[in-house]
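Fold this sequence, please.
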Amino acid sequence: MGRVIGTQDATPLEFWVWLEEGEAIQVDDAIVVETDSPNGPLKLFGMVDIVRARHQGSTFDSDVVEAERGLPVELSIAAHVKVTRLIPEYYYPPMPGDPVRTVEDEEFAQALFMDKMERKFPIGLSLSGKEVVYGNLDFLNGRKGAHMNISGVSGIATKTTYSTFLLHSLLHCGHLTDAKNTHAIIFNVKGEDLLFLDKASNVMPVEDEALYAQLGLPAEPFDSVQFYVPPTESARGPIMPKVSSRKADEVTPYFWTVRDFCRQRLLRYLFSEGGEDASLLSALTYQVERKLLEAAEDAEKSGPGPGVLLPLGEDLAEDDSPLPPTEVRDFPTLLRAMETLASSTNHSPGTVGAFMRRLYSAEDKVAYLIRDPADSDAARHAINWRNKQVTVVSLSGLYEVGKSFVVGSVLQQIQEEKEATGSAEPLCFIVVDELNRYAPRDGWSPIRERLLEIAERGRSSGTILIGAQQTASEVERRIVANPAFRVVGRLDAAEAERAEYGFLPPTLRKRAAILTSGRMIVSQPDIPTPVPILFPMPAWATRADEQKLPPPALKLSRVRESEY
């Protein structure tokens, strides 16, 4: 493709290449140059990050016009190469005039250290579409590192689409220790778009099917999926799913009973706005939680059921004796009981008042999530993420306090159940979008602490966080700093300059501002430079109208013998 030029410094880390006339090369192509060093033959692999064109023999900007009139100038096209690997690892520069060529197949894998990956999974294709780019599974499954973070503007960066593609790749890569029992939990915040992971897509082009084959992945939807959706907002009557795009028997409405709420200590997740005032109420919250837990444990001794026995007020019976506790089965009654419990603590009336104002303001927003199951089977409506390989928990239609409550409660359940097994395998991948909402940089909230705990020590229990957000600069620093894999789609130009994207070289920061859908930039520990990749469209439907319907059945009509 060209030769190392001598008019620019060539170092063991970067150099410039003069391109032969007619050579087709673009940014992100992988190349290799072979040179003789004092230590013997040396191969320097690298990636093109700049391609520039200029006139040789030109002095003034206006000479570009004079060139058309016969000014003797020559066109020079050169590419800047950032070195990614040296074989052997002897840091010596290439010599001016050394021939440079593009690489494919085994040499492409060498350029990006993919030949050293014992366990790998496809993360996409090179932008030329010729080579598969792999991720090192050891840096995602907890062996050497864990977690992934994805950033990008909403609607263009395709963060959710890429995260589901990665799950599809992980489950079919063949390198998971126990793929059949590996689980993935996705919190759906995009309307009802993720309620069709089990349906084939009717809009995927044939060309993308070929990309799946090239990646070694089946071009088919997920085959083991369950969908949990919120119930309708009526806290009484039949429990119906709040969904419009799927049949009622294809989804499961979820809720918690009062006993579940007390036993699992979920009160804290109703205080998840991330403000400083929530932190001031934490001591009172935990005191009330302990009393609710005691009531739930007492109730368990008497047998199964949805309610607990709690005092509802300071009223006395006619003989001046305290009234017996009342069975609490719904959230409005639970609020009265919690007010009694909070008033019996040593906290000031002002703190108790602030505590109850928060709860009463949330009553209408979460009452249908913490409810009396009546004659329904409560166990069927509990979120059981072990039933299927992939579990979608829809948050569509919930108020903000409801979303935080559901996410915090499910994360706590997953983490406690995983830690109770005492083993990291099989893995559990958790996809959380809008991290800046649940784990803001400033303030305090229980759900933020839960996500931070998963990010910092989840790898030991096999709990892997795949987090996504529009702006990483607004997320708790330790959560965006811990992931081994960092991915960006289209970024706002100002956001791309923030310190959280320091892993991107200046050229890739500029590239991130113009990325189109289906293109991402992936950084991982094994590869010394972030790599732009493309990935195919989903093989599963992302909307109701994208479902591939089965062909209509042929209708056979009876005809008279004389009509044959």
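The mean pLDDT is 90. The radius of gyration is 30 Å.
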